[in-house]
Amino acid sequence: MFLFNLEEKLSKSKQEIDLLVEQLNEVLRNVPGDIIISGVASTSPVNIGVHSRSPLGYKSVWLLVGYDELVLKAFQAFHYGLIARARRDELLNAGGHAVRQICALAQSYKTVPATRSDISSGSQKGKEAISRYGMPDPDVLSGKKRSSFSAPLK
């Protein structure tokens, strides 16, 4: 259930940030024809080595890269007077919220020492997991609803 929810939230957050970046791209494209605005780049980029044991970890990094692009473009549009400070802050807050939602969800992860069969069969491990975390979504339990990165069912 957790992986499915995380994958869904990552997808939604990426769409939100992509939409905000596209709004800024539109603003930056709508300058008078004779004016050319150079591409935005950080004056002191930081290169960080990234290693994840999960494809969803890398998707989280891609989300951060998208937010970085949003920040750079928001400051560029503000610098050139194409958006007001309030709009810049609104864009940064919306993008930051999308990223923070992923962080909050990832921090809420709890290991469940029970398998699908434990829950289906009503074993002691299954009962303990249900009492602690509630009954899983039936579609998740049956395998209908799964993260595209989940291991195959046995």
From TrEMBL:
InterPro entries: AcaB. It comes from the Bacteria. Keywords: Coiled coil. Residues 116-154 are annotated as: Disordered. Residues 3-30 form a coiled coil. NCBIfam families: ICE_PFL4669 (TIGR03761). This is Integrating conjugative element protein, PFL_4669 family. The lineage of its organism: Bacteria, Pseudomonadati, Pseudomonadota, Gammaproteobacteria, Enterobacterales.
